[in-house]
Specification:
single chain; alpha/beta; globular
């Protein structure tokens, strides 16, 4: 059994008696160089620093020292964006996380904030959580992260947001720097977290149906009203995976992913220019994890989906068969048809498998001279069917 010990910037002085005893009895201690340097001489174990990159080396190092008394050091709470969850069966001796310490310094209630880690992850993840009057805490990758976050907020129209960078929390060098995003001066110390009080007016809800203007598009875009209905049929569920086939601007994959941080999506788009556009839209809207596959569907080798949306290429041979075969039992297939030919395909499959069939007609008000009139969008037929669960 590996013992994982959470340690803060204050080092040995901040550890419990149980954690000190575990480290003192260890034969090998694995950790980052900064963490290992916090240990006093009373810890006589062999000290092994993680290589870079770390995660690929973890299995080999654990196997190498499996017959020795082994401790692993982790920053703060090892089970909160930490290595503790990556090691299999472990004994965890926790420590206050940097988020707990930041909230204690600022007088913020933890349950009222959103936490985003950009350690080894794109900073654009912050975009999904920027809303008027919200409080965020960002776990920084390094001293340059606050400047990147400030630039992101300013670009979003949230330059008036107040940022407090809390450096070396719990250590002798603990320090706070406060300012607005649009006036931010850096860099910061490498060990820091960022507390943000969002101040701005732009609203981009996590509820499906973002304004069409939120997307960069060449016109190949599922319109707002249809998108909202389509996502309601796809039923995003935390932890599940969507295929967005014929991605266009990526709006279905993106809004599926915005429902919850654990929602995952793969957009399949044959046109490289559109595929690049999907990636940009995903980053701007806070879900840079949307995977873009440049290929002509049907395509092999994709992870098994819980839901599939076909918004383009429906008339290609074997498209529906491919989607149904790939789905997990109980998964949802949603197809949007706008042409006579694609509606004919939907009609055949509906006659064969049943499911839910809806036709949506949307008209938008627009100027007609000095008056306002209705301009209809193309009607869309939506077919929804669930894959049967084997008895």
């Amino acid at each position: 059994m590996v013992t994982v010990v959470g340690i803060g910037a204050e080092g040995w002085d901040g550890l419990t008696a149980v954690a000190r005893r575990a480290l003192s009895q260890a034969e090998v201690v694995l950790g980052g160089k900064r963490q290992l340097d916090l240990l006093p001489e009373v810890v006589t174990a062999e000290r092994v620093a993680w290589p870079s990159p770390m995660m690929p080396a973890v299995p080999g190092l654990l196997a190498k020292y499996q017959d020795r008394v082994l401790c692993v050091l982790a920053s703060g709470d090892p089970m909160f964006y930490g290595i503790g969850s990556k090691l299999g069966p472990v004994r965890v001796l926790t420590h206050p996380s940097s988020v707990q310490l930041a909230c204690a310094r600022l007088g913020w209630a933890q349950q009222d904030i959103e936490v985003i880690s950009v350690v080894g992850r794109p900073v654009e993840l912050v975009n999904a959580q920027v809303h008027p009057a919200r409080r965020l805490i960002v776990l920084s990758a390094d001293g340059g992260t606050p400047g990147k976050v400030a630039a992101l907020l300013t670009k979003r129209g949230y330059g008036a947001s107040v940022m407090t960078v809390l450096e070396e929390l719990g250590g002798e060098g603990e320090n706070q720097v406060t300012g607005t995003a649009d006036q931010w001066q850096g860099p910061s110390r490498p060990l820091n977290v960022i507390a943000i009080e969002c101040r701005g007016d732009e609203v981009l809800s996590a509820v499906p149906g973002l304004p069409d203007e939120a997307y960069e598009s060449d016109g190949q875009l599922t319109k707002r009203e249809v998108r909202a209905v389509t996502l309601s049929r796809l039923m995003p569920v935390p932890g599940q995976l969507l295929w967005d086939v014929g991605g266009g601007a990526g709006s279905i994959a993106i809004e599926w992913s915005r429902v919850h941080p654990s929602c995952r999506a793969i957009a399949v788009e044959r046109d490289p220019t559109r595929a690049g556009r999907i990636g940009r839209n995903a980053r701007e809207l806070g879900v840079p994890g949307v995977e873009v596959v440049v290929a002509q569907a049907p395509v092999d080798g994709l992870a098994t989906p819980d839901a599939v949306f076909i918004g383009g290429g429906l008339t290609a041979d074997g498209m529906v068969e491919w989607a149904l075969a790939a789905l997990r039992p109980g998964g949802r297939l949603v197809v949007n048809a706008v042409t006579v030919e694609s509606e004919a395909v939907v009609a055949r499959w509906h006659a064969r498998l049943g499911g839910d069939l809806v036709r949506i007609s949307v008209s938008r008000g627009s100027p007609v001279g000095g008056f306002t009139g209705w301009r209809p969008l193309m009607p869309v037929t939506i077919w929804t069917v669930s894959k049967e669960i084997d008895a």
